C-alpha cells in the first residue's frame, strides 16, 4: 500500500511539473555528457601514451650534401663516421640505455615519406636523394633521451638529433588542457544541475504543502513524506544519465571509431568498450547529485 501510494504521488507530481522535470533531464544530460567526454579524453590520452611511447625513437640524422649545420661543414657523412656512430651506439656506455638500433638509408626514408604524405604536391617534388640518412634508436627508457643526445650532438657527420618524445609531450599537453576544459565546463553545468534540482524540489514541495501537512497529521514520518520528492528528481536524473550515456556511446562508435579512425589511421583511438565503462559512473554521479540535492533542499525548506 505504501509503495503504491509513493508511486501514485510520483506519477502525479511528474505530470504536474513536466516542464521542470524536462529541464532537470536536459541539464543533467548536458552536464553528464561533458563529464563523460572528459573521462573519455583522459582515456584517449592513456591509450595514445601507451601506443606512442612504446614506439618513440631518437633519430640521429646524418649530414647530406645540402646540409647547412655547422657539424656538416665537411659535407655528407662518410662511411667512417657512420661506423663510428654504430660503434658508439653499441658501446658499454650506451648499452644500458639502447634497446635497438636501425639504420634508415635514403630509399627507405623516401618510402616512409611517401607513405605518410601519399600523393600530395609536396611528396611529388621530393626525390630520394634529398632524403637524409639516419640512425633510429629505440631506447629502453624514452625519458633518457638527453644521454644519447649529448653523445652525438654537434658531432661531425651528424646534422641533428631529434627526440619524438618532445613532440608527443606537446601533443599530450594539449590533450590534457582540452580534458581539463571539458571537466571545468562539466563542473559548471553540474553545479547548475544541483541548483536546478534544489529549486525544483522546493517549488514542488511548496505547491504540495497541503498534502504533506495532512500526511504529517496522520503520523507519516519525515522520510516517508520526503521520499516521493527525492525519487522524482532521481528519475529525472536517471533519464538524463541514460541520454548522456547513449550520446557518449554513439559518438564513440560512429564518429571516433567510424569516421575519425578511417581518416586518421596512425592514431589508436578509444573504443565503444571504453565509453561503456564510463556509463555506470555517469549514472552514479547523476543519481547521487539528484538524491543529495533533493535531500538537502527538503531538509532545509520543506516544512512538515
From TrEMBL:
It comes from Spongisporangium articulatum. The chain crosses the membrane at residues 20-41, 180-203, 223-254, 275-298. This is Cell division protein FtsX. Residues 56-161 form the FtsX extracellular domain. Belongs to the ABC-4 integral membrane protein family. FtsX subfamily. Residues 184-303 form the ABC3 transporter permease C-terminal domain. It is a multi-pass membrane protein. The gene is ftsX. Forms a membrane-associated complex with FtsE. It is found in: Cell membrane. Part of the ABC transporter FtsEX involved in cellular division. Keywords: Cell cycle, Cell division, Cell membrane, Membrane, Transmembrane, Transmembrane helix. It comes from the Bacteria. InterPro entries: ABC3_permease_C, FtsX, FtsX_actino, FtsX_ECD. The keyword Transcription regulation does not apply.
Amino acid at each position: 500500500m505504501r509503495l503504491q501510494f509513493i508511486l501514485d504521488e510520483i506519477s502525479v507530481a511528474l505530470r504536474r511539473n513536466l516542464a521542470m522535470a524536462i529541464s532537470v533531464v536536459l541539464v543533467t544530460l548536458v552536464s553528464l555528457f561533458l563529464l563523460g567526454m572528459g573521462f573519455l579524453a583522459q582515456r584517449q590520452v592513456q591509450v595514445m601514451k601507451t601506443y606512442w611511447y612504446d614506439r618513440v625513437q631518437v633519430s640521429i640524422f646524418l649530414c647530406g650534401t645540402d646540409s647547412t649545420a655547422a657539424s656538416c661543414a665537411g659535407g655528407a657523412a662518410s662511411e667512417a663516421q657512420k661506423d663510428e656512430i654504430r660503434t658508439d651506439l653499441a658501446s658499454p656506455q650506451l648499452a644500458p640505455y639502447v634497446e635497438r638500433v636501425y639504420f634508415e638509408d635514403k630509399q627507405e626514408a623516401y618510402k616512409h615519406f611517401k607513405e605518410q604524405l601519399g600523393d600530395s604536391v609536396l611528396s611529388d617534388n621530393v626525390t630520394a636523394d634529398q632524403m637524409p640518412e639516419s640512425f633510429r634508436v629505440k631506447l629502453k627508457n624514452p625519458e633518457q633521451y638527453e644521454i644519447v643526445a649529448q653523445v652525438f650532438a654537434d658531432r661531425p657527420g651528424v646534422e641533428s638529433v631529434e627526440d619524438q618524445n618532445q613532440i608527443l609531450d606537446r601533443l599530450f599537453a594539449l590533450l590534457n588542457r582540452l580534458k581539463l576544459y571539458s571537466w571545468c565546463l562539466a563542473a559548471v553545468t553540474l553545479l547548475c544541475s544541483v541548483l536546478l534540482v534544489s529549486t525544483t524540489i522546493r517549488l514542488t514541495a511548496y505547491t504540495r504543502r497541503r498534502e504533506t501537512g495532512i500526511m504529517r497529521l496522520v503520523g507519516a514520518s519525515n522520510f516517508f513524506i520526503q521520499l516521493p520528492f527525492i525519487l522524482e528528481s532521481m528519475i529525472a536524473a536517471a533519464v538524463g544519465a541514460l541520454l548522456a550515456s547513449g550520446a557518449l556511446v554513439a559518438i564513440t562508435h560512429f564518429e571516433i571509431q567510424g569516421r575519425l579512425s578511417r581518416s586518421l589511421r596512425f592514431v589508436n583511438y578509444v573504443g565503444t568498450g571504453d565509453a561503456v565503462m564510463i556509463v555506470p559512473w555517469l549514472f552514479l554521479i547523476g543519481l547521487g547529485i539528484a538524491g543529495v540535492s533533493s535531500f538537502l533542499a527538503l531538509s532545509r525548506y520543506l516544512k512538515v
